[in-house]
Amino acid sequence: MFHRVAELQNSRVSLGLRSLHRRLYYSLLCSLEKTIYGNPQVTLAAVSPHTTRQLARYFSRQDVVVIPNGVDSDYFSPAAIQSMRAPGRKGFNCSANDFVVLLIGNDWRNKGLPALLASAAQCRDLPISVVGRWPGRSRSVHCGWQQS
């Protein structure tokens, strides 16, 4: 939902042309969302209860049906995951016994990255890997952090 993204963006104090562009862009997208999602004649389906709650919050839509994304049960089976575990841990320089928190995605504030980092600061020797797009970068990056 661009309404949520706009809220997050507006909570930051930023100046300049990029900030102006973002405000105009999000205003346009929010207007389009309101036109489409706010129309009760448009049937909506969401991929999660979270998205359904956002549609209810921003557009007063109580008629949204949840249709979860399909999952390839062969690829995400316990056996397949076990076969990927050792190479995945090796790629992040983690041993088989390390406790690791892995956060993948974007919209870090919405996913709780600041809270995770604040909590991890209270722990000792807790590796945290964050994978995703970072502002100002055109590709995905990996960032490892460990408290000394």
Describe the structure using short key phrases:
2 domains; 148 residues; 12% strand; alpha/beta
Q: What does this 3D model show about the protein?
A:
The protein is built from six helices and five strands, in the order ααβαβαβααββ. With 148 residues, it is an alpha/beta fold. It folds into two domains: 65 residues, no CATH class; 68 residues, no CATH class. A three-stranded mixed sheet has the order 3-4-5, covered by helices on one side. A two-stranded parallel sheet has the order 1-2.
Number of continuous helical runs: 6
- General shape: extended
Order of helices and strands: HHEHEHEHHEE
What does the radius of gyration come to?
20 Å
Q: Which strand order do you get reading across the main beta sheet?
A: 3-4-5
Helix content: 40-55%
Beta-strand content estimate: 5-15%
Q: How many domains in all?
A: 2
Structural class: alpha/beta
* Count of β-strands: 5
